Amino acid sequence: MRPLALGLVTAALVVPATASASADLARIVAPDGSTIAAAPAQAGYAYPADGSIAQVADVVAGSGALRLRGISLLGGRIRIDRAVVGSRASVEGVVVDGVVLPAGANRVVAVPGVGWALVLQRAVLPLPGGRRRETSVAVRLHLTAPLAGLPADSEVLIGLAGGSRAGVNLSGAATEIPADLVPIYRSAARRYGVPWSVLAAINRVETSFGRNLSVSSAGAVGWMQFMPGTWAGYGVDANGDGVANPYDPVDAINAAARYLSANGASTNLSNAVWHYNHSSSYVSTVLKLAQDYANGSATVPASVDTVAAAVDSQGTAARTGLFSPVLLW
User: Fold this and answer.
1) Strand, helix or coil for residue 285
2) Rounded distance between C-alpha atoms, residue 189 and residue 50, angstroms
3) Which of 46, 68, 169, 197 has the fewest beta carbons closer than 10 A?
4) Residue 8's closest CA among 155, 160, 215, 161?
5) Given strand 20-29, what is the order of strands in its sheet?
């Protein structure tokens, strides 16, 4: 998938009420996933002391949500007047480098000389026992260069809320695959005529089953690493919640199946996978892994993460298979 644009607009966001929840006002995360600094939900915040990287004027916690006012990053290069994370997440008054952005979730914006920011990130992670964790972040700043003592690839997360809620009791196949994802793959496979094992293999190579939801070097986003322009054409609201969300596994996996189907998966699966990522090593790795999954094998070829890293370094949509604790707190 070739990069088309860094902007991503989705419909109004509604996060279901959670059975249990946790929240932080801010978290600074090192490249290895360790926490450099964190702040609980309390009024006022600055990092470092001069607030040159991040400031929050005020925050109120309650009713399953954090309500933040006056978010400023990078000395005002990124400003958000109001943000709500948790129940009924939303943002208002978003300005980046003097440009006013429309309200919306999962919006990726470039910050030249610094990195990129993801405004109002929402993600869903299936959990054992039919539950799922839903997380939202008001703004996530990724540094591609050292800044104010923070190394490159550090992340600044402002306004974090997460919880879990009951879902359908799901079952799985190969132990490499999270059991709760298998019925999603199979449902999408039935709908679009794409082998479920291929969807699982792509998910494994692209984001390690949703464990690494970073934006790729090319700007690809979400569970199945779609370029925003491609998502605009193939994204689907498969779970019927009113939002086609690349960070929701049901929507993203169905969108991937739709994309593969449109590129002739039923007649030439290899070619369809090649359209997903223009790399012959990617295609062979995905298809070999899919075969193992279909056979119930838990053996993962050593080449999987190597191939994922290689195609990512070439500026494609693929991601490494490393576990990233940045989002899944």
Assistant:
1) helix
2) 52
3) 169
4) 215
5) 35-39, 20-29, 155-166, 131-143, 115-126, 107-111
Confidence of residue 14 (pLDDT cuts 50, 70, 90): very low
> Residue 270: which of 195, 207, 320 has the closest Cα?
195
This model's pTM is above 0.90: no
Residue type (1 letter), 249: P
Q: Tell me whether strands 65-73 and 54-62 are parallel, antiparallel or unpaired.
A: antiparallel
Rounded Cα distance between 176 and 185, Å, is 14
For residue 296, the tally of other CB atoms under 10 A from its CB is 12
Contact criterion met (CB below 8 Å) for 82 and 60 = no
Instruction: Give the strand pairing for 78-86 and 90-96.
Output: antiparallel
Cα–Cα distance for residue pair 232/5, rounded to 1 Å? 11
What are the pLDDT digits (tens) for 146-201? 998 999 989 999 988 764 333 322 233 466 788 788 889 888 988 888 888 889 99
Task: Provide mean pLDDT across the span 81-107.
Answer: 87
Q: What are phi and psi of 304, to 5 degrees?
A: -60, -55
